[in-house]
């Protein structure tokens, strides 16, 4: 990384769930920073706390302990209204199963997301950038899984967020389409200088990241920097 400007800081964050008599430690004492323009993969097996961490980063959940900052502002102090604005304007979400609205076209899906946020980018430009310039008027059911995921990525990017949070974005796709999706996220990361965070249990995806945060049983067990991240096209699983 040339310029390591801190975008987010996570300090001693824990999350516990009370399940009757049992306390589940979903996340224990996580601390790390995310830099501007960085590509980060959070890697870990099922149940290791990845979604819990991503939900906290995205302001969808709050920690039981610890503090989270974005650009020096503490989001763990935000009230509900401030959290709504944070999720709406600052964070782009990409999910495993796309979560598109079935009765809206690709373009309308993107448009809807941008209508509620402040600094949205030009929709048609973004649709071109994700390779859907000629598919804008298709409905989700008329598109392949990979195309639907590209709409979801366009929707997240068009908001012009500070950070893109992606939850198993290749989880529902075959290998080839998965690689194309990762290439697109890589391009968005470089071209738009957006911080991208992917959570996955798929180890090889870590090879394309600037840094890999490894989790096990609710804890960060390793943070590894890749001096030479692999181009997504060279990843295999
Ligand atoms: N709302 C909840 N109530 C109770 N326990 C929860 C809740 N959410 C998560 N957990 C527990 O916290 C732990 C971490 O879950 P989390 O979903 O963060 O893991 P994950 O790494 O994202 O797993 P997966 O890859 O399967 O989604 C698990 O033991 C899970 O059962």
TrEMBL record:
Keywords: ATP-binding, Nucleotide-binding, Transport. The keyword Transport applies. One of its GO terms (molecular function) is ATP hydrolysis activity. Residues 8-237 form the ABC transporter domain. This is Putative ABC transporter ATP-binding protein. GO terms for cellular component: membrane protein complex. Belongs to the ABC transporter superfamily. PANTHER family: ABC TRANSPORTER ATP-BINDING PROTEIN MG467-RELATED (PTHR42798:SF2), LIPOPROTEIN-RELEASING SYSTEM ATP-BINDING PROTEIN LOLD (PTHR42798). The keyword ATP-binding applies. The lineage of its organism: Bacteria, Bacillati, Bacillota, Clostridia, Peptostreptococcales. Pfam families: ABC_tran. SUPFAM superfamilies: P-loop containing nucleoside triphosphate hydrolases. InterPro entries: AAA+_ATPase, ABC_transporter-like_ATP-bd, ABC_transporter-like_CS, MacB-like_ATP-bd, P-loop_NTPase.
């Amino acid at each position: 990384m040339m310029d390591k400007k801190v975008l987010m800081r996570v300090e001693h964050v824990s999350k516990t769930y009370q399940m009757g008599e049992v306390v589940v430690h979903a996340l224990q004492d996580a601390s790390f920073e995310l830099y501007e323009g960085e590509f980060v993969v959070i890697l870990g097996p099922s149940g290791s706390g990845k979604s819990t961490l991503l939900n906290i980063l995205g302001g969808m959940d709050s920690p039981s302990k610890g503090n989270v900052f974005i650009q020096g502002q503490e989001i763990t102090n935000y009230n509900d209204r401030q959290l709504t604005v944070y999720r709406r304007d600052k964070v782009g979400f990409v999910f495993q199963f796309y979560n598109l609205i079935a009765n809206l076209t690709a373009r309308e899906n993107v448009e809807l997301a941008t209508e509620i946020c402040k600094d949205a980018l030009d929709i048609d430009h973004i649709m071109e950038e994700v390779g859907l310039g000629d598919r804008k008027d298709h409905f989700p059911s008329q598109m392949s899984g990979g195309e639907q995921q590209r709409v979801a990525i366009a929707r997240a990017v068009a908001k012009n967020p500070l950070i893109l949070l992606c939850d198993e974005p290749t989880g529902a796709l075959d290998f080839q389409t998965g690689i194309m999706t990762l290439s697109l996220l890589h391009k968005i990361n470089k071209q738009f200088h957006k911080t991208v965070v992917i959570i996955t249990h798929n180890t090889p995806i870590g090879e394309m990241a600037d840094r890999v945060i490894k989790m096990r049983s609710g804890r960060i067990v390793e943070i590894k920097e890749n001096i030479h991240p692999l181009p997504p096209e060279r990843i295999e699983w």
